[in-house]
Every structure is written in C-alpha cells, then in structure tokens.
Amino acid sequence: MLLTYKLKNGLNVATYSIPEMRSVFLWMAVKGGSIFDTKDTAGIAHFGEHLLVQGIPTLPNVEDFSNFLESLAASYSAATSPQYIRFSINAPAAHLSKITRIASEVFFSPLFPQDAIERERRVIVEEIKEKQDTLEYKIYQFFAQNRFTANHPMQLETAGDEKVIKKLTREDLVKWWTTYFYPENTYLVLVGGFKNDQGRQLIEEFFAKYPALEKKLEFPKFTNQYLKDRYVAIREDRKLKTTYLDLTFPSIDESQPLEERICRALVKNILGGLRGSRLYRLLRQRRGLVYSVGAGSIAYQRFGYAYISSQVAAEKLEEVIRLIAKELAVFYKTGPTQEELDFAKNHHTNRALMHWDHPSAIADWIAGDLMWEDKIYIPEEYVDLVERINLKDIREFIKKYWDFSKLGLTIQGPVENSKENRKKFENLVAEIK
C-alpha cells in the first residue's frame, strides 16, 4: 500500500508497505547536486555528501557509524548527482526505528568533524586523480567543452576540482549544508516490511522536530540556449585504437509534461535503445560496422539533449556517420512505423511493471515521482499513459523538441583534427536539418 504525505515542517514523505518482506529500504534526498556548483565551488556538493556519514550525534565518528550499521546487518550508501544528494539504508525490518533515527541525523545533524574533513579531502583528491587517468574522463571533458557554453555547470566534474577541494573550509561546507538540507527540500521514501502507520509514527518521531525554513530552492537558469550552436569537433588521439563518436542536439528537459517525456523514452527505444532498434539493426546486425551503437537522452530540470553514440574503426567512420545522418534525417521527417511504436510500447510497459519487483527499485521509482512529478504513478497508471501514445504524438514530439540548429558532432580517436576533416564531417551531417 502506498501512502504519501507532508510533515508539518514540509518534509515530503512516501511509504510503501510490503508486510511480508523481511527487510526495509529507506531512501532520502535533497535537491541541490553538482549542477549548483560553480567554478569557485566545484566539488563542494560531493565533498559535503562524503561528510554526511562521517559523524552524527549518536555515532560521532565514521568507525562508530559504519560498525553500528553493520552490526544490524545493514548497508548504506550516499551519492551526489547533478540534481540531488541522496542517502539510503537497507536493513532488516526489525531495525526500522534505528535506521530512521540515523537517517534523520545524517541529513539534519551531521557533525562535520574537522579531522574527517581533512581525511576526506585527501580521499577526494585521490578520487579526482583516479578519474583523470581514465579514458572516460578525457572523452567527457572534450565533449563537454564543445557541447556547453563557458561556465556551464556540466563542464565541471561532480567529483570536483582538486584546487577547490584543497581550499574548502569547514565554514564553506556548513554553509553549503544549510543552503540545501531543510525539511521542505527533503524527500523521504520508505519501502518494505512494515505497516504504513508504523512508518509514519517513526518518521514523525525523528523528523518532525526539525524546523521549516519556508524557502524554495531555485535551479540554475541554464536552458538549451546554453548548448553551443552547430559544430564539428575532433580530438586527435593516436593512442586510441577506435574512434568515439557522439552526435547530440537539444531535446526535451525534465520540466515538460510526463506524456511528452514518455514519447522521448519510446523514441529512444525505436531509434537506438534496443537490439531491435533502427540504428543497431542497420550498423551492427546487417553491416557489422560497429560493436555497439546507442541512442538516448540526458535531461535535467531546465535543459536536455538527445544523443547517438558509438565506437567505430577509423576507416569506417565516414560510412557510419553517413548512415546515421541519413537514418536520423529520415526518422525526423517520417517518424516511426506503427509496428515500431507497438514494439517499443510493449517493451517499455513491461520493463516498467518489472521495476516493482525489488524494494530498492520500487523506492527509486517512487522517489523520482515524489521529487519531480505532481503525483506518484503506480505502474498501472504509468502503463495507461504509455498505451495512449500514438504515432501523431511521437511525430509532434520530434518536431517540437529536436533542434538541429545546435547539432554537435564530437569525434575522438586516431583521426586528424584538420580543417579538411572538419569540413568533410560537416558535409556528412548536412542533411540533418
């Protein structure tokens, strides 16, 4: 049974009781992730998230904290994403009271011990260095520098900037915490083996005492206008044995109606999200030109973009780009077939129903709706929305949100970064308009 409510202090709650389960999963988050970082504070959200579990009033250091939870056979994790910071605990249902108390202290009474700050500072610096050694880091950095305008938060690494991390003080971190961690900006989801009235009683007991701040968080005003205009960018790297290809263009953001975002999910599956998608069949199954190819989208509250990505042998790069450009241009003009839409809807609805087979997955679903939607959609309600989507909806979605005037082609690998090559690739994607 699903129950949603707000405490008097504004804290947002959803509980989902599955009495026959022997475990409980508690998930909570505040809006305010790395997308709120600036060049001068790059990594403060990540640093702060590390410190949430380094000491609370009843467990004043990280050893006490982790040892106590493990003594309950519980596990916990914390993470920073661009739009929120979250903390979760999975534990035997018999310990629901204990983990609810701990969760309340993690978000609203962290101690920020100075010795933990210095220790985690060193840990994060090493984490940053490890990331910088990876190919994924180099690939993303070049992509972000070309895709986004200067000072866009997506050019910053969530892990942070080493120079910034070394300078942040306890005062900086506490100020960051007070900016985002208040009841009206907090979302709590509890799933598993308990009764909803029991869950509500414990949440009231441990969370209601924190005062409301009566303020509303405003997201940074970065929209799709902050995606650069049409471009081709090449990073020549002769050490790579394959070529990394990313074709991107502005699309729908997360603030738009759910029905339109469902269209986005269906288009992804039809174009490049499944093994039966157009691009996978064309490039992998029929021609054997690539090992993998995918299509999808990255979206936040105020901006979003669609992408097609692949890894391609340098000698096949022109052919692959030509085929992708032709397929995308045709898809934009005509949209999918009824058969493709039916297949995508069947896949999407059944995956949605399967999502409710595990408490952590249920919590993720409920949390997403609790934070961003006007209501929580149970699977049957969501499936009903999917089933209503028709070909006209899909075609209107594509025409409304895809903006090829800001189409970007990023190529990284053993390909010469020359004026002639950039012009050649510009011509190959010219029909996408």
TrEMBL record:
Homology family: Belongs to the peptidase M16 family.
Span of domain Peptidase M16 N-terminal: 13-136
Protein name as catalogued: M16 family peptidase
Coiled coil segments of this chain: none
GO molecular function: metal ion binding
Domain Peptidase M16 C-terminal: 167-346
Pfam families according to UniProt: Peptidase_M16 (PF00675), Peptidase_M16_C (PF05193)
Lineage, highest ranks first: Bacteria, Candidatus Daviesiibacteriota
